[in-house]
Design a protein that fits this description.
Layout lengths: L20 H8 L3 E5 L2 E4 L1 H20 L3 E2 L5 E3 H7 L1 H4 L5 E4 L5 E4 L4 H11 L8 E10 L14 E11 L2 H21 L4 E5 L9 E8 L5 E6 L17 H12 L3 E3 L5 H4 L7 E16 L1 H6 L2 E3 L5 E3 L1 E8 H11 L1 E2 L2 E2 L10 E5 L5 H16 L4 E4 L5 H11 L3 E5 L1 H5 L3 E5 L5 E4 L1 H13 L2
Parallel strand pairs: 3-7, 19-20, 19-21
Antiparallel strand pairs: 1-2, 4-6, 5-6, 7-8, 8-16, 9-10, 10-13, 11-12, 11-13, 13-16, 14-15, 17-18, 21-22, 22-23
Helix pairs in contact: 1-10, 2-6, 2-10, 6-7, 11-14
The chain binds adenosine-5'-triphosphate and magnesium ion.
Length: about 450
């Protein structure tokens, strides 16, 4: 993309309404525009990152054997009357009437609808196990929408639902989700810690939240200092292997890590004092096992191998896709702007032309731009006639992890400059070497 033809409405001033750094930087970098409290347009740069995050979530769900579908945002109230949640959900639910005075709602989550789909088509244990998921907009009329996309009213969520014959099978599905979530967050360059949680309106006994440590997080967290060092890395996981998946879950949940809702001072105090950490975290996902809570009330049953009919065992599993942008920025920024991890960056590399209009410099930039595109990469070329300082400031603000700077002085020596956004370190090399270096960096992502 050539910046001269792109739509990147960056703001020079700090927007007064933003209380936390991620909200401020998303507004300044022209990623989002507020349309009403907690409701945002996703401008091109923000939309690009949102899509990158969505793609990673999809890939890891499919890898775990889960099946994508798409349910609507609007739902009939009658489904929610069956589970009893139409009355229970309270003011967070946006209730709507259509022209025929039928009660509708904008879905805050989809347990009822997915259970309805299941009961319409599945009636035998032979069709199990089954896990269906979608990535769809949700609406919750939050009392206090704030922090930009972090606590919106309309927000994008991945929600998945498992259907199993036995509790044991459903717990395997729970574990499978835990491992696939760990891999999902790690691919984005995030450390999200599974913490035992309280269940809330979804219901159920087994539940973990995934928290990204950040000063601005809304949850208070208590954890063993060793927990953030746990990494899944690139180990190959066989998601059908129950023991293997359960062992990984154990590895990640044995050390103490809880939110204030489940915190137990006595247990916490058994950790050596120097490892007792108290901090704040952003909830970026949650998994639940809730058994037959919905299948029983909604009549979603299956015939067992010995001919009995039983309610299907279920769980639900959510990732806050749009909230992740905020969490990623909270965890990756400096005073100049955002620092995107390579896994989610909107453009792979920025090209800064220091002397737009100079024949040789323009030609060198064009050649680099085309070479990167030819290798399947997505560069952002700042081809505007602007001061070098202003161009650098924009690149730093929008946070592309790598920058190639091209100017007449370097070109006289056959070099360009390759700069790492995170470390600020620059290296001179030939244009070809710079392209090869970028290609190599992204081979791993
Ligand atoms: P919270 O405690 O933050 O209100 P929740 O526990 O009610 O969230 P879940 O039902 O667990 O939310 O939804 C799954 C995920 O969706 C959450 O882990 C979170 O990342 C995201 N999410 C929930 N509410 C919002 C919101 N208002 N804005 C953005 N993301 C949200
Ligand atoms: Mg939650």
């Amino acid at each position: 993309m050539r910046l001269s033809r792109y739509f990147l409405p960056v703001l020079k001033e700090n927007p007064a309404e933003a209380q936390i750094v991620s909200h401020r930087l998303m507004l300044r970098a022209g990623m989002i525009k507020q349309q009403a409290a907690g409701i945002y347009s996703w401008l091109p740069l923000g939309y690009k990152v949102l899509k990158r995050i969505e793609q990673i979530v999809h890939e890891e769900q499919v890898r775990a054997g889960h099946i994508p579908l798409l349910m609507p945002t609007l739902q009939p109230a009658d489904l929610w009357r069956e589970s009893g949640r139409y009355d229970d959900y309270g003011q967070e639910m946006l209730r709507i009437k259509d022209r025929h005075e039928r009660d509708m709602l904008y879905g805050p989550t989809n347990e009822e609808m997915i259970t309805d789909i299941f009961r319409s088509y599945v009636s035998s244990y032979k069709q199990l196990p089954l896990t269906l998921y979608h990535i769809q907009w949700k609406f919750r009329d939050e009392v206090r929408p704030r922090f930009g996309v972090m606590r919106g009213r309309e927000f994008l969520m991945k929600d998945g639902y498992n259907f199993d014959l036995t509790k044991e099978d459903a717990l395997h599905a729970y574990n499978r989700h835990m491992v696939s979530y760990l891999r999902t967050y790690e691919r984005m360059g995030l450390t999200a810690i599974p913490m035992r949680a309280a269940s809330g309106p979804i219901g159920g006994d087994n539940t973990h939240e995934f928290l990204v440590l950040a000063q601005t997080g809304e949850s208070e967290v208590f954890y063993d200092a060793k927990v953030p060092d746990l990494k899944l890395g690139d180990r190959a996981v066989d998601y059908d292997n129950r023991d293997e998946v359960a062992a990984i879950c154990e590895e990640f949940t044995t050390l103490y890590a809880r939110t204030d809702e489940t915190h137990d001072e006595a247990v916490f105090n058994k950790i050596p004092e120097e490892r007792r950490m108290v901090g704040r975290g952003i909830e970026v996902g949650q998994i639940f096992y809730f058994g037959t809570k919905y299948s029983e009330s909604m009549g979603a049953t299956v015939v067992t191998p010995d001919g009995n009919r039983v309610p299907v065992e279920m769980g639900s599993h959510g990732i806050g896709v749009s909230r992740l942008l905020g969490a990623l920025i909270e965890a990756n920024h400096d005073d100049k702007g955002i620092i995107w991890p390579e896994g989610v960056t909107p453009f792979h590399v920025g090209i800064v032309n220091l002397k737009q209009g100079d024949t040789a410099t323009d030609a060198a930039c064009e050649a680099i731009y085309k070479a990167l595109q030819g290798r399947g990469l997505d560069p952002l070329y700042d081809d505007r006639e602007d001061r070098a300082g202003a161009k650098f400031a924009t690149m730093d603000l929008i946070g592309l992890p790598w920058r190639i700077t091209v100017g007449p002085r370097g070109l006289a020596n056959n070099v360009v400059e390759l700069t790492c956004r995170r470390t600020g370190e620059s290296e001179e090399m030939s244009a070809t070497a710079a392209v090869e270096r970028i290609v190599k960096i992204y081979e791993a992502h």
